[in-house]
Amino acid sequence: MGIPFWKCVTALTMFLVLSLHIANVHGLAVMSVDIGSEWMKVAIVSPGVPMEIALNKESKRKTPTAIAFRNGERTFGEDALTVGVRFPSNCYIYFLDLLGKKIDNPIVDLYKKRFPYYNIIPDPKRNTVLFKHGESDDYFSPEELVAMMLEKAREFAQDSAGQAINEAVISVPGYFGQAERTAMLKAAEIAGIKVLQLINSYTAAALNYGIFRTKSFNETTPMYMMFYDMGAYGTQVSVVSYQLIKSKDRIAPELQPHLAVLGVGYERNLGGLEMQLRLRDYLAAKFNNLKLTPNDVTKNTRSMAKLFKEAGRLKNVLSANTEHFAQIEGLIDEKDMRIKVTREELEELCKDLFDKVVLPAKRALEASGLTIELIEQVMLSGAGTRVPRVQDRLVKDLKSNQPLGRSLNTDEASALGAAYKAADLSNGFKVKAFITKDATLFPIQVTFDKEVIDENKAAKQVKRILFGHMNPYPQRKIITFNKHQQDFDFTVGYAELGHLDENEIKCLGSLSLSNIKLNGVRDAYSKYQGQEGADTKGIKAHFAMDDSGLLVLQNVELLVEKTVTADTEEESTLSKIGNTISNLFKGPEEVLKEEKPVHEAPEEDPISQAPNNTTNNTDTFDQTNSTEQVKLNDTIPISDSKKNLKVVTVKETIDVNHEYLFVLPAQDDDLQSSINKIAGLKEIDLAKSRKETSLNNLETAIIETREKLEQPDYSSSATEIETRSILDKCSEISDWLEDDGFGAEAEVLDSKFDDLKKIVLPVWERTFEHAERPSRLEALNSALNNSNSFLEKIKNTTLDDTPFTQVEIDTLDKLISEITSWKDKQVEEQEKLPKSVDPVLTIQTIAIKHSSIEREMRYLMTKFTSWKPKKKEEPKVKAPTSQTDNEKAKTPEEQDNDSTVKTNAHDDVDKSTAHEPSNTIEDNAESESPLKTDKPKPTELPIVEPTKTEEKRDDTHTEL
């Protein structure tokens, strides 16, 4: 019989419930984007799907960071690189490191040298980089190019998740400063993506490593790891610690894994790109030495682009092989290149680069204060670590006791770690807490002038460290200006960068980040001067280094402590309870981001530059300012004799004029112009995609139509007139496509497709009807046979042993007869008709009849499974009593009469207890007909399977 219909209905109901549940959680997916100089990886977290790499259109797990423009079309990834081989200036690559750079930055100069075929001009407003595209008037900034890649990343993520995604965590190199991080956020804004956090790539890789190894951490001894990440552009090394730390929850504290970055070292230009460029130049020199053509291959941009692509392939092959041939057909002047290159030659070309391999690792160890003996393992990350000589130098120069770790996926570690962070920050997911504390790579200080008291003396400049080298963040700091009572200004910028070389300092750009002018200081002070009990505590500027590594000035205020008269009554018990509860439920972020005071020092004190102990090494100028964290409405007792006085803290906000001194991304009209530009390009891409889809659908429909009409099943379902009409229409559309169709818009192509579909659809429907009708009739026959079998079994059983009424049995019998008669008649009529005529017996009508018989059977089966048969009890044997003698005295006829009466009475009691009140029809039937001795017992009912189902349903009902 197959699967019972009621089971199918139950499964469908459960599926619909689950579908509705899933529909409610749509829109919760988040993504992470690891956008590197050469490759971009995208990971997603969606309901029911843990961290997963999103595949691109080619079903690959990573996409080249490349964008090409050619003939009004925009391409990405591999398609863009294909365009770049023929038209190098049309394909933009390795533009990530141009974010936040002015035109005179050393990185920009190096980029021009590496890729001379780009037309790079200064932005007239911001003096940043602009790519002028060919001879057109199109200009693209690095922020716009990054925004395009982020938009493409979201497209990959949405295709994988099957829903819209607007939130992301983006990984960036750790050596990105304030300008680069701000530019990255602006690029995401242009793309319409909400950035939950910028995370350093090495921190994301360390997080990906830690989330699967929390069982190996403990709360007493930290586990130290080194992560060595050599990418395409640069190399980053981090030293991190893993430890279990108790949460701050006072009610139910638990051990939480904690990741802290202790030391970082990097080499900005040590990576696979530099090796590839040197190999490219080596191949060009080798080819020129062959004298196959008088032209210099280095002067031809297209030839150099071909060599650059081949050098990248050759570099990857030589990582696994000792030698290989570089081959390019038609490199220049129709001349082919075939040059054998060995791994030794490549290593000789990059000898100075391999000498620098260990330098970032040593800097990271030095910054962390640890030695290599304390490092558990050196974990490799990044595609550059696949080069054998890189691994050899690490083993030789680091002298670690443990072998190099290769358990991380070198390409995807950062993307997956950032995806976990995205799920943690998103409101739609609940993940196990994993606390991360990053480290400040470039220290930040505040510089200001002491307030001039004697006009004849020059103002002395004071510097105060806000965030020292390797200070953890996120974190808040406060700096207090005690002497200034007039409007003044101060500068925020990078502090001493002795751990960097001179060229690297130049790469950071402007060392001054912002100039902050405070207005209304004098008015704020004058407001409280002369007030009795008012004591000013100076101007306090509140800074924060947020999760993304960005410095934020939160607010500036004048702090005043006022002594006021309080009520003589003590604080009420209810108020005390309220304050106690408020203190108990402080969030963990208040502890993690605790504001730390940084005070203004006296003039005679030397400027403290200790990087890791900023707070402890700054002296307090005003000793009355020792209480930095006094909150509004806090009370401080004055003395035991004056309990009616209390101190109230008043905060007066100071106006701030914030002028940024580093490279800022586009603002206002320029920002809106960039957003409109990206939106316009997206519309063009969508129109192109729609046109391609429409054209493909039309061409496919023509081919399939002609092929199907050659098949007997389809040709027999069409008349000669219909066949001729369809073939003529196909020829007409094919001729139109060759002449004008390929330049037509999507709407015109769709209309042609609809015209063809109108005349083809009736034939296809007939073919489908003829093909499906036998199986549908077979299913209907099976349902009728099963129903007949069920009906016969019921008829062979008396009504009082089944839950069915005579009306229900007659209804089923009538329905079976009607459907059988209808089916036989319709089948007979259908067999008389040719296949080219519309059928009289359609699949839809068969389905309706099938549904009606299944519905009736489902009703009866449901009633049967919920029915409990009557239980018959054996007659009770009564003990002999004193009436025995009387019974013996009775005649045999009198004894029979008494016995009959007693039996009937017993039967009446059984009926009243065995039947439910609703079974009145069955009770009446029993009362009318006497109990037969040959009637089968309930357990002997032929229908056995529903009884089993009844037991299962009873159990399920009990659990619910």
Short description:
By secondary structure, the protein is of the alpha+beta class. The protein contains 27 helices and 30 strands. 43% of the residues lie in helices and 21% in strands.
Give an overview of the whole structure.
The chain is an alpha+beta fold. It is built from 27 helices and 30 strands. Strands 1, 2, 3, 4, 11 and 12 form a six-stranded mixed sheet that branches. Helix 18 packs antiparallel against helix 20 and helix 20 packs antiparallel against helix 21.
Give a quick account of the main beta sheet: strands, pairing sense, barrel closure: 6 strands, mixed
Euclidean distance between termini CA atoms:
30 Å
Our Rg estimate from Cα atoms comes to 42 Å
Oligomeric state of this protein: single chain
Round the mean pLDDT to the nearest integer and report it: 81
The total of beta strands comes to 30
User: DSSP helix count?
Assistant: 27
Uncertain stretches: 1-26, 568-572, 584-594, 600-641, 881-960
Helix content: 40-55%
Helix/strand class: alpha+beta
Overall geometry comes to: globular
The percentage of residues in β strands lies in 15-25%
Topology:
Layout: H1 5-24, E1 30-35, E2 39-46, E3 49-53, E4 63-64, E5 66-70, E6 73-76, H2 77-86, E7 91-93, H3 106-114, E8 120-122, E9 129-132, E10 139-140, H4 142-161, E11 167-172, H5 178-191, E12 194-200, H6 201-210, E13 223-230, E14 235-246, E15 255-267, H7 272-289, H8 301-318, E16 323-332, E17 335-342, H9 343-349, H10 351-355, H11 359-368, E18 375-381, H12 388-398, H13 413-425, E19 435-439, E20 444-449, E21 461-467, E22 472-473, E23 475-481, E24 488-494, H14 502-507, E25 512-519, H15 521-528, E26 534-545, E27 551-565, H16 573-584, H17 588-592, E28 595-599, E29 645-653, E30 655-660, H18 668-709, H19 712-715, H20 720-739, H21 746-795, H22 806-832, H23 843-865, H24 884-889, H25 892-914, H26 920-928, H27 945-959
Parallel strand pairs: 1-11, 11-12, 13-18, 15-19, 23-28
Antiparallel strand pairs: 1-2, 2-3, 2-4, 5-6, 5-7, 8-9, 9-10, 13-14, 14-15, 16-17, 19-22, 20-21, 20-24, 23-26, 24-25, 25-30, 26-27, 27-29
Helix pairs in contact: 4-5, 6-13, 7-8, 18-20, 18-21, 20-21, 21-22, 21-23, 22-23
Family: Belongs to the heat shock protein 70 family.
Keywords: ATP-binding, Chaperone, Endoplasmic reticulum, Nucleotide-binding, Signal
Signal peptide: 1-27
